[in-house]
Amino acid sequence: MNFEQARFNMVEQQIRPWDVLDLKVLDLLMEVKREEFVADAQKTLAFIDTELPLSNGSRMLQPKVEARLLQDLDVEADDKILEIGTGSGYVTALLATLGKHVYSVEIDPAQKDRAAANLKKAGVENVTLVEGNGLHGHAAQAPYDAIYVGGSLPVVPEQLKAQLAVGGRMVVVVGDLPMMRALRIKHESQGVFSETVLFDVVIDRLNAIDAAEPDRFSF
Predict the structure, then answer these.
(1) Cis-peptide, bond into residue 154, ω within 30° of zero
(2) Is the pLDDT at 31 greater than 60, yes or no?
(3) Degrees (nearest 5) of the Cα angle 159, 160, 165?
């Protein structure tokens, strides 16, 4: 398989038509090799317009959804980033390439180890992987300039909003079937947040468990 042609087709046929027009993001998608973050048996499927299953039952998002969330997060070179749900490590690598450092929280220790191996193979070093419940964020390194949430939630967690720096942004998909919406939350000034609806989409629940409301925040 010609991976470079498949990558080009993914960008031009799936991602651009989904209003991802930021050249910085488009160039990045050509640079970071998505096929290196999937199982060997899935490499020929890495560029198709579908979610891909991970070995722990979670799934990688569609490439166009990953790209659109990344564009709308508007990561800058000096940003400290929090990622909720490491998954395969692919989006982690994209965030790390755009920003200064990524702290990525993954609840599944085996998946965290797989992502660490993928990132090492790809030569991505400015990442710290943390085992834990992503709903709690990672307060030890807060505040963050950008927060990326890699699974859907019923509501925006206040704990994550509290870890945004003033001027910081978060992208998160919220809602319940059959309607979910991608939102951008911005910390405008101390304690004041704005919310922008980006697009409608349905994605899997975040693989996280909240001790106070286990049924509400888990799947």
Answers:
(1) no
(2) yes
(3) 115
The pLDDT assigned to 57 comes to: 84
What is the b/e burial string over 62-85, where b = at least 16 CB atoms within 10 angstroms of the residue's CB? bbbbbbbbbbbbbbeeebbbbbbb
CB 217 within 8 A of CB 154: yes
Distance between CA atoms of residues 8 and 40, nearest Å: 20
As a whole number of angstroms, the distance between CA 119 and CA 134 comes to 19
Q: Are 114 and 121 in contact (CB under 8 A)?
A: no
Helix axes 109-122, 90-98, angle to 10 degrees: 50
* Angle made by CA atoms 178, 207, 213, in degrees to the nearest 5: 80
Dihedral sign, Cα of residue 149, residue 18, residue 37, residue 218:
positive
pTM: 0.93
